[in-house]
Amino acid sequence: MEMTNQLNYLSTLIPEYIIIFFLMVIVFMDISKEKIAAKIPLVAMSGIFLAIIVAVIFSGNFYSTEKILDPNAIFVNDGFAFIFKFMVLASSLIMIYFFRHDEEVNSYKGRKGEFYILFYSMVLGMLLLASANDLISAYVALEVLSLPSYVAAGFLKRDNRSSEASLKYLLFGSAASGVMLFGISLIMLSVGSTSFASLTGLGTVIPADVLVVMGLLFIIGGFGYKISMVPFHFWAPDVFEGSPVSVTTFLSVSSKIAGVAVFARFVLSSISPELQTAGILDLGMNINSILVFFSIITMTVGNFTAIFQTNMKRLLAYSSIGHIGFIVAALACGSENGMLAIPTYLLIYTLMNFGAFLVILLIKSRINSEDIRDYKGLGYKMPFLSVMMVIFMVSLAGLPPTAGFWAKFYVFTAIMESKLYLLAIAAIFNTVVAVFYYFRILKTLYFEKSDSEEVLPILSTGNKTVLALLGVPLLILGIYFSPVIELARETLKIAGF
Amino acid sequence: MSQFPYLSVLTFLPLIAALALIFVPAEKKNAIRYTALGVVIIQVLITVVMWMNFNFSLAGINDINGYQFIEKFDWIVLTGIPLIGTFKIEYFLGLDGLSMPMVILSSIIAFIAVISSWNIEDSTHKPNSSKGYFILLMILNTGTLGVFLALDFFMFYIFWELVLLPMYFLIGIWGGPRREYAAIKFFIYTLAGSVLILLAIIGLYLSAYESPEFKVHTFNMLNMMDAANFKPDSVMSVLNPGNFRFLAFLGLFIGFAIKIPLFPFHTWLPDAHVEAPTPISVVLAGVLLKMGGYAILRIIYPIFPEQVQEWMWWIACLGMINIVYGAYCALGQKDFKKLIAYSSVSHMGFVVLGIAALAKGGSTLGLTGGVLQMFNHGTVTAMLFLIVGVIYERTHKRGLDDFGGLSVQMPMYTGIVTLAFFAAFGLPGLSSFVSELMIFIGAFSTESIRTLTIISAIGIVMGAVYMLRALQKIFLGKPREEYNDLKDLTLREYIMFVPLAIIVIIFGIYPTPMLEIMNSSMTTLLDAVMK
Q1: Which pLDDT score, from 0 to 100, does residue B242 have?
Q2: CB contact (8 A) between residue A489 and residue B191
Q3: How far apart are the CA of B84 and the nearest CA of chain A, in angstroms?
Q4: Cβ separation of B172 and A443 shorter than 8 Å?
Q5: pLDDT for A265-309, tens place per residue?
Q6: What is the full DSSP assignment across A136-196?
Q7: Peptide bond into B270 cis (omega under 30)
Q8: Does residue B174 surpass a pLDDT of 80?
Q9: B127 to chain A: closest CA residue
Q10: Which chain B residues contact residue A405 at CB under 8 A?
Q11: Considering the entire predicted model, what is its pTM?
């Protein structure tokens, strides 16, 4: 009996074992000969591919009606974890494509292996975060994700901005995790256990117990830092601006997916089971009203500050803060629809963000600038790229007929269903504001004439294929949206939602 | 309904053409232009065929059996969604007496717009910009037709939003000196209205069922029109005392009022119209503004009848302000195109005044006049903007004081202009007179808005004033030397003007063809809103 339990526990983390194994392989490849070291990207890609396959194979466990999962386990591998792990791994696969085209990173020739080691460590941290079912394991996973991120942000040793980004990230992240650890200790004191299952009901009404309140808030602060929720977001713009573009993309997409996964699991655990299925909450003082508050300020700060940005990476940093505001709004609903909306939104957000960052990467490799003022007239010099950018911007703004509209629509439906009308008003207000800065990019591309007449190198077929693979699904899903929600629903079934 | 899918072909043919045009190289201008022309001619032909097969006795506002050429099937169905159950969006297109005039108008204006865009050039004189232009124009075409034909609220919303993106680029790239400002102002203003509409849509969706027995939420507009279909304790149910019906009505009204444009949400129009290139101004004034009026009649009137009855006077008041304020603003303009833009505002005010003339068991004159005015305003204002375009293309000037005595140098042009101007202020014998007369009789006979009607009469006089003043300043008086070489109308311009002129004259003398389309629908609409 004991052995079967132990084996069951072991099997929850198989994809992670594969990542660890490949990580070791890459370390050894890095310290061996040049010829072997050159194959690292290939090995990295196959490692992630294998991890995806394994994760999908082991997802068959979910459909058994016997719940073999122990609610007190520190890592679980249920449907909820699966969909987030899948998104993390799939996005990591695309990231390897980014790395190959990021010239800043590739200019540090001898350090390529080091970069992939950092990357793999971050992937490991993300996978662990998605499965974490205990406050301590969430903390550990968070650190496993964060520490390599600090280094990766500062990867461009010769660039001052990169080093500054890394230092800011380190300081902020350490402070945030310290605060979170303190919050965990407070919860441990009050409840006696750090498992997520033991948090049930804590967030429903704010009890007179100050320790619990403080503990919850500190932990929200820790998770909120990772997903750059306001007011824990101050690291994001500088770190996004200073890091190399591919690291920024990785942080903005995959890191947030993992952060949202663990945050959602935390919030879900702290609502009582009755409320989980009822779906309609009255706005008493509970964790959902706190999240409504955070959501509104996140959306507003993110979208309003983005208006004033001229650096594209910084602009997308603030835009992603705005999107996180939407996701937290879906979380704040506390209903099943809200939970369904989250992976749906994240999936489409992944496609859109990757697309936007890829465009920035390709433009940067040609005109060597990330400033929006240098994008003038590029619509005519790089037509394919700009048309793709139109799709990504329209999708980010949430307009039909792109998938971004459906993602926002589903979140709106969840919000309206939970009768959070103030949140709905704030959300639509921010949608309109966001259109301004997304379309300012399009305006610069198409409405203005470029200052120089130089002809830019055209995109390779590979570039065009990847751009099309990111952009065309956004249009197709914009018209035929069912598959995404079906996918989200199927995988959330067994996780008790 | 195993007949030829007229409505789908009508709506989506331009979109397919746009996708096909993507693969045509930008240098092949003729291929691009003739493809677009072929598409709009096919659309006009389909519209004529539908008109000939139109059953005038079917009303169809809130009754699905009264709609014609219906195409209805499930588009997106998701079962097992928590709490909502089944999430269903239908592909539902249908035509009735309210949408038929709009569809006819759309097809004609699309044709005119393509002819007018023949030699379009963007402001930086890039050599091959017509490919992008025609692709966007085709997408715009799909959007406008889809709005008039969609009977599923979600489809309606998607088409409504689909119009925004091409307009942004069309104004922003091919427009005048302040085009970027005008484009983003138009976009954000209209988008703000659209998100309010979205909230109302979601609220209605969560409240309405397909039928009391079949408790599946639906976006089907016809189901929402029947109050028995609502979930009893939902936010939009009449039976629920704590309902948000007024807020939904307000949200929808503001969203649609921005499009009309109704005071005080009209400020985007002068900028957008003036800075847009001529063909886009034609489409904007001819079709897009009608989307607002049509939507109010299609959506707000049948679904929120109590709110309409309660706020009728206010709607009429806003209409009156449009008429009078728009007319005075037009009078004060020095720019010819801006004058036409404000006249457009003023004439849409007539539409609103007409559709607010509702009395239980009263006449449908106001409603019919309003819808007819929408059609007439579309054709007449299209002519007016084309007129401005003619002179602007030749001289690149639009100021009223820049011209004089053009009747000597361009006599045929002056003839067309005179016809258009007289039609604009409603000279008897031309189409606008019929609609304005119907609106005034209908509004005057509705006691609550009688005073507003009397005040609006000033608008008619003012209309004549600014139109005749423009006529005098530009075309009469002493001819100027610098315009001696101006060519009169070319063949292409005749093709643009003659169909519209014929419509304006014939419907002024014999409006029956248009009226008989609308009659039964307007009666049913009046009953639906005053019940």
Answers
A1: 65
A2: no
A3: 9
A4: yes
A5: 888 777 655 544 443 444 345 677 788 899 999 999 999 999 999
A6: HHHHHHHHHHHHHHHHHHT--TT-HHHHHHHHHHHHHHHHHHHHHHHHHHHHHHHHS--BG
A7: no
A8: yes
A9: A380
A10: 161
A11: 0.87
Q: Which residue has the tokens 């619990």?
A: A212
- Cα distance between residue B386 and residue B281, in whole Å: 9
Can you tell me the distance from the alpha carbon of B138 to that of B111, in angstroms, rounded to the nearest whole number? 11
CA of B139 vs chain A CAs: smallest distance (Å): 12
Count of Cβ atoms closer than 10 Å to residue A283 Cβ: 13
Asked if residue B97 lies in contact with residue B59, where contact means CB atoms within 8 angstroms, the answer is yes
Contacts for A453 with CB less than 8 Å, ≥ 6 apart: none
Task: Express each pLDDT in B43-95 by its tens digit.
Answer: 999 999 999 888 888 877 777 777 888 888 877 777 666 666 677 788 888 88
Peptide bond into B177 cis (omega under 30): no
> What is the interface pTM, i.e. ipTM, of the complex?
0.82
Q: Contact, B199 vs B292, CB < 8 A?
A: no
Question: Cα(B202)–Cα(B198) distance, rounded to whole angstroms?
Answer: 6
CB-based contacts of A119, cutoff 8 Å, min separation 6 = A44, A92, A95, A99, A148, A152, A250
Q: Nearest CA to CA, how far is A252 from chain B (Å)?
A: 27
Contact A230, A294 (CB under 8 A): yes
Going A459 to A463 to A465 to A469, the CA torsion angle's sign is negative
Distance from C-alpha of B305 to C-alpha of B311, rounded to nearest angstrom = 10
User: How far is residue B298 from each of residues B155, B224, B422, measured CA to CA in Å?
Assistant: 14, 12, 31
Smallest Cβ–Cβ distance between A428 and the set B82, B83, B198 belongs to B198
| List of chain A residues whose C-beta atoms are within 8 Å of the C-beta of residue B81 | 337, 340, 485, 489
Partners of residue B124 in chain A, C-beta under 8 Å: 449
Q: Name the burial class of residue A134, with classes exposed (0-12), middle (13-18) and buried (19+) by CB atoms within 10 angstroms of its CB.
A: buried
Per DSSP (E only), the strands in A324-378 are none
The pLDDT value recorded for residue B380 is 95
A168-171's contacts with Cβ under 8 Å and 24+ in sequence apart are A168/A235, A168/A238, A168/A239, A168/A242, A169/A235, A169/A239
Residues of A in contact with B80 (CB under 8 A): 489
